[in-house]
Amino acid sequence: MTTEECLSGKRLWKIASEIRDRLVRMQTARYGDVQREVGNLLQNQEELASVHRRLRVCLSRGWLGAAARMAEQNQRLFRELLYSSQDAERAGVRPEVQPPNVRDVLEELLQAEEEFEHLRYDPEDGVLAVTTDPIELEGMYLGDFEIRLRIEALGDSQHGTPYRVVALDPQPSARNDAVTHPHVSEDRLCAGDAAAAVDAALASGRICDFLLLVRSVLTTYNSESAYVRLEDWAGAACSDCGATIGGDDTYYCTSCDAEFCSECTSSCARCDEATCLGCLSSCPVCGDSVCPACMDRCPECREPLCCHCREERQCPCQQESLDEESSDEQDTNRDPGEVGETSAAGPAGASEQTVQPAAQTP
What we know:
Blueprint lengths: L4 E2 L2 H53 L2 H30 L8 H14 L4 E3 L4 E5 L3 E3 L2 E4 L1 E6 L12 E5 L11 E3 L2 E2 L2 E2 L5 H9 L3 H12 L17 E2 L6 E2 L5 E3 L4 E3 L4 E3 L6 E3 L4 E2 L6 E2 L4 E3 L6 E3 H5 L4 H18 L2 H19 L8
Antiparallel strand pairs: 1-2, 2-3, 3-6, 4-5, 6-7, 8-9, 9-10, 11-12, 13-14, 15-16, 17-18, 19-20
Helix pairs in contact: 1-2, 1-3, 3-5, 4-5
């Protein structure tokens, strides 16, 4: 926030009037919200169907690395589908609420000022804000947060959620820098079961109740609706060396379904998938490190070798067989007459040199 004003007198009444006008507009825009949320839901469903088709192709062709990536996209889309489904449901069942009068909104603002000690307003951005006390969940310090309500976003579906939750002393998760609270990602709050109550409080102009509900979500931990669970906040432990990892240093091994640090991870020389060192094995023929999915066996001697060496028939037993076949082919293609002529010429030549006719005596 840039320029802040203390709320009192005519300024407070003017803000209450603007909030009331926006709430009236919110009632008329609710059906447009239903259409928008259902559209988002259908778009997520189409994307999920597309990923499902690509996964089927990967499995039919044996592309295990690509199939793993499709499976990860499936999980992401499942979560987005869940959220968009909840948003569409909330938009559809949102009850009709009679907009409050200006005096009711003014009383809510005065009550919020008492509950949070200081209610602030930024006239440049039209943002009403309060600050929470420092928050600590299950021994994890997360710092204080500012709840920001953008008044002009009330009743305007183009702005999306009209409020943000901003960390003033960010203590982000090691797994994701955008997550500053188990229920806050990129300044957006996942209110979980309290979402309907939060929306209802805003729609009816109960500004103080809205702020208290958001604060309640921030001071309560629910692992089921967390962007990052508290037990994973500082990062996961590498499954090999045990070092704490998070963010860009986390690698997922598709062979053993575990997480590793960069020092304990390499890539398969065949499919180029990230694979932990424990799952990589050296091909005894070419010496390359390959993942279990790319290791095969020689169809003749059943010795292990990589899929490339199997396709190219590089196994030593196959090379010996190829050499024997080549030798037999050379013998078969040789002209049989050459052998007879050589053997006949040898003895004939020798008799001509060793047997001499008897000398004639006069």
